[in-house]
Amino acid sequence: MDDIFSAIGSDLRAALERDPAARGAADVVLSYPGFHAVAAHRFIHALHRSGIPLLPRWLSNVNRFFTGIEIHPNARIGRGFFIDHGMGVVIGETAEVGENCTVYQGVTLGGTSLARGKRHPTLGKNVTVGVGASLLGAIVVGDNAKIGGGSVVVRDVPANATAVGVPARVVMKDGVAVSAPAEEEANWTWVI
Ligand SMILES: CC(C)(COP(=O)(O)OP(=O)(O)OC[C@H]1O[C@@H](n2cnc3c(N)ncnc32)[C@H](O)[C@@H]1OP(=O)(O)O)[C@@H](O)C(=O)NCCC(=O)NCCS
């Protein structure tokens, strides 16, 4: 139980550090659906891990009703997780989120396979996923990566990279711009 409260403390600090609009702890605790959803998930996940049937799934549905954020009870979420705004976020059953990640409204960590087993993304530490991005399949997003708003990510993203577009491609790695592959550039239509 101490672990849960300590993780919720980290989530609160994450919201204060990463949202310039946050006006203090009371503001976050009272008015941030992303904070509410993650805090509730931490208790729901503990119930799920203790083997209680049905109740965790029902509670996660109640959580979604109040916050607009759907987190499967089995999803593993690291400390310091901040969901900003939050409406429409979906985090699937086998998703894993490392410490200090941030996601914005409309983000999906979804599966592409109907087979049971690992089928949702794994995010490293300090990953940021922009508004409306879809990360699909059992892909791995490395530490400190950034995913652009509206991107569709279907392949692994290396650490310290920025990936954007549909399908997403890496445009920045270790602070250095990465140019598009030559064959992709050859297919571009230039409108002048
Ligand atoms: C991905 C992101 C983090 C990149 O930011 P950055 O490191 O400052 O990079 P830049 O803005 O210099 O963009 C680098 C390149 O990627 C392109 N790009 C950036 N974001 C993009 C996106 N979401 N989709 C498609 N292309 C994008 C830029 O046009 C630029 O291309 P160019 O080099 O051909 O001009 C940022 O654009 C983003 O999408 N952040 C999400 C923010 C968000 O969700 N806010 C919600 C608030 S409610």
Write up this protein.
This protein has 192 residues and is of the alpha/beta class. The protein has one domain: 3 Solenoid (UDP N-Acetylglucosamine Acyltransferase, domain 1). Helices cover 31% and strands 21% of the residues. It has helices at 2-18, 25-31, 33-49, 55-67, 182-186; strands at 70-71, 76-77, 82-84, 90-91, 96-97, 102-104, 108-110, 122-123, 128-129, 134-136, 140-141, 146-147, 152-153, 161-164, 169-173, 176-177. It has a seven-stranded mixed β-sheet. Strands 1-4-7-10-13 form a five-stranded parallel β-sheet. A four-stranded parallel β-sheet has the order 2-5-8-11. Strand 15 (169-173) and strand 16 form a beta hairpin. The protein starts with a helix and ends in a 6-residue tail after the last helix. The mean pLDDT is 95. It binds coenzyme A.
Summarize the structure.
With 192 residues, the chain is of the alpha/beta class. Helix content is 31%, strand content 21%.
Q: Helical proportion?
A: 25-40%
CATH topology: UDP N-Acetylglucosamine Acyltransferase, domain 1
Bound molecules: coenzyme A
Helix/strand-derived category reads alpha/beta
Number of β-strand runs:
16
Percentage of β-strand residues: 15-25%
| Order of strands in the sheet with most strands | 3-6-9-12-14-15-16
